[in-house]
């Protein structure tokens, strides 16, 4: 029996997936902004660990892991249930921030505060009593006070602890589509390791970073690099081809007139012969122009420019 070699089927090439980017609500941090946030959260983490070590009398470390922008709905979907979501008022915007950590970790804090050995209480569904909540609120309030120092070079930031909730799905700290800034930390206390997250209003933090770009630049080299990047971006955008159209005033007709169109029909326009035409790019009117000719070709001469649409 003869076995014939058959050519292998060509591998299917995956179609590139294009994701729309909303410049009004970005979900990606600029590299420089991410670097400044990492430095600020790193300072906060060191101070937070020092505060807990002093209050609990056990070696505690808070290590910064990462920072990212999410929608609030995405952030909530990543949290375990139940968990302690400590709601805070963010000053000066009066928006809501969240410090999230396992309930069992707060029980260990309370055990240490009362002179225990840090066993805590791992019973599922356990919630803080009023006395325990008061102790946790006071402990967190002292630790969160270091945020103002950590973010002094970026924006004025302070958190005031309000209360705690345990089911993320029922906490409406922001609208589902709102952009939030989420910092993730690893909390090591004795032999125990937990994950802690800090959620802040995203739009306020991004706006503060943009406003502080000049003042928080690390060095003259950074500023020079940013200026060169801006020049390169302007040059690249200036070389992008765009389609420019000249438009008469639209005329309204009935669908039956459109269907009945035939060669030789005349559509009367409502555009006055003395009025200039619209010069448009992607439907945006950028200028007005008078119709004319340039040699054997039609042309138009720009007579006015719409400044407000050129930004």
UniProtKB/TrEMBL annotation:
Q: Which GO terms describe its cellular component?
A: bacterial-type flagellum basal body; plasma membrane
UniProt xrefs under Pfam families: FliM (PF02154), FliMN_C (PF01052)
Molecular function in Gene Ontology: cytoskeletal motor activity
Which InterPro entries does the record associate with it?
A: CheC-like_sf (IPR028976), Flag_FliM (IPR001689), FliN-like_C (IPR001543), SpoA-like_sf (IPR036429)
Q: Which GO terms describe its biological process?
A: bacterial-type flagellum-dependent swarming motility; positive chemotaxis
Membrane among keywords: yes
Q: Where is the Flagellar motor switch protein FliN-like C-terminal domain?
A: 236-305
Location in the cell reads: Bacterial flagellum basal body; Cell membrane
Give membrane topology per the record.
Peripheral membrane protein
Provide this UniProt record's keywords sorted from A to Z: Bacterial flagellum, Cell membrane, Cell projection, Chemotaxis, Cilium, Flagellar rotation, Flagellum, Membrane
Is Repressor included in the keywords of this UniProt record? no
- Which coarse location class describes where this protein primarily resides? other
Q: Which family does it belong to?
A: Belongs to the FliM family.
Q: What is this protein called?
A: Flagellar motor switch protein FliM
């Amino acid at each position: 029996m003869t076995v014939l070699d058959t050519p292998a089927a060509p591998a299917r090439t995956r179609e590139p997936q294009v994701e729309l980017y909303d410049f009004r609500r970005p979900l990606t941090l600029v590299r420089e902004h991410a670097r400044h946030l990492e430095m600020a959260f790193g300072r906060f983490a060191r101070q937070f660990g020092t505060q807990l070590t002093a209050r609990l009398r056990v070696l505690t470390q808070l290590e910064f892991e990462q920072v990212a922008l999410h929608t609030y709905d995405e952030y909530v979907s990543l949290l375990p249930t139940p968990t302690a979501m400590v709601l805070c008022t963010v000053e000066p915007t009066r928006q809501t921030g969240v410090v999230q950590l396992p309930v069992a970790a707060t029980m260990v804090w309370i055990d240490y505060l009362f002179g225990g050995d840090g066993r805590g209480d791992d019973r599922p569904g356990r919630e803080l009593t009023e006395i325990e909540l008061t102790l946790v609120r006071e402990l967190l309030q002292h630790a969160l006070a270091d945020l103002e120092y950590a973010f002094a070079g970026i924006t004025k930031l302070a958190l005031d602890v309000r209360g705690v909730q345990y089911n993320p799905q029922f906490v409406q700290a922001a609208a589902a589509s709102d952009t939030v800034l989420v910092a993730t930390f690893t909390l090591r206390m004795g032999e125990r390791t937990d994950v802690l997250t800090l959620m802040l209003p995203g739009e306020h933090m991004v706006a503060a970073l943009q406003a502080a770009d000049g003042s928080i630049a690390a060095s003259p080299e950074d500023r020079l690099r940013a200026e060169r990047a801006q020049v390169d971006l302007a040059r690249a955008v200036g070389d992008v081809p765009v389609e420019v159209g000249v438009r008469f005033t639209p005329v309204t007709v009935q669908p039956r007139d459109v269907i009945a169109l035939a060669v030789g029909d005349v559509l009367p326009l409502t555009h006055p012969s003395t009025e200039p035409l619209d010069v448009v790019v992607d439907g945006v009117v950028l200028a007005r122009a008078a119709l004319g000719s340039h040699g054997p070709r039609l042309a138009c001469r720009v007579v006015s420019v719409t400044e407000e649409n050129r930004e």
